[in-house]
Write a structure and sequence with these properties.
10 strands; 4 helices; 259 residues; 17% helix
């Protein structure tokens, strides 16, 4: 009986160790990161009606204290654990109706219409997406353009950060370094410029054409599957982020019969 008890205790101990090891392996196995499809339309006011305004306020939703992510936190970009493939350009399919309406309007000009797929990452691992790396599904007719970065951060809610520049030519008189009017709100005047001579032979000063970059910075707390509009006197942005639905592998019909 003593030998039998020892044997039983040994088998029980081995079984418990096996179950414990399987539980530890299951807990340490990381779940795949959730992926999101991001779709964005950036468009300008075709008539630039507010180009001379002195203050451009942003209308962002305030984040709750328990879900606050500052710009400083969002700018942290650790190279460690950075995904090998950050984004995948995909064909837009979420905002097609909105794009058609804006594109057919005489009041607006579409600058960029893009869509991409990426993982949802916390602020320390999130990365900037350069607009220049995105496929623009709109063939622009505007002489103006948009550059900069977009960042998606996953916390309790989704957060969208934008650091963009809206580029457009401004005209002033040669020698007018102040660039009053259109250029006074620009954060950067590109030094390369060209003078357009006067059409008559008078002593009228030549027109000076330069390119100004107007900053557009925003932070928006978002809910997935909801359309969000980011307002600006010169540029409008429509964006929607949808979670990628994972397709579950179906077990073979005869699997149960074989077991």
């Amino acid at each position: 009986m003593t030998i039998m008890k020892i044997f039983t205790a040994t088998v029980t101990t081995i079984g418990l160790l096996f179950l414990q090891n399987n539980t530890v392996l299951a807990e340490t196995k990381e779940a795949p990161l959730k992926q999101y499809d991001v779709e964005i339309i950036i468009f300008e006011d075709a008539h630039a009606r507010y180009i001379n305004t002195e203050t451009w306020s942003q209308h962002d939703e305030p984040a709750s204290p328990e879900d606050e992510i500052t710009h400083a936190q969002a700018k942290v970009n650790t190279k460690k654990d950075k995904p090998a493939v950050e984004i995948e350009n995909i064909n837009p399919k979420i905002l097609t109706q909105e794009y058609k309406r804006i594109n057919n309007s005489s009041e607006y000009e579409v600058l960029q219409y893009s869509a991409w797929r990426q993982q949802g990452l916390e602020s320390s691992k999130a990365f900037d997406v350069e607009l220049t790396t995105l496929k623009n599904s709109h063939t622009t007719r505007s002489e103006n353009n948009i550059t900069g970065t977009i960042k998606v951060v996953l916390a309790r809610y989704l957060h969208l950060f934008g650091d963009l520049d809206y580029h457009r030519p401004v005209t002033g008189e040669a020698g007018d370094t102040g660039n009053k009017g259109q250029g006074q709100m620009a954060k950067d005047i590109i030094p390369t410029s060209q003078s357009i001579p006067a059409t008559d032979e008078s002593n009228a000063p030549a027109a000076l054409v330069t390119e100004a970059a107007y900053p557009i910075e925003f932070r928006r707390r978002m809910r997935s599957k909801e359309l969000h509009y980011i307002d600006h006197p010169l540029v409008g942005i429509l964006v929607q982020i949808n979670p990628v639905e994972l397709i579950k592998e179906e077990a073979p019909e005869n699997a149960s019969a074989e077991q």
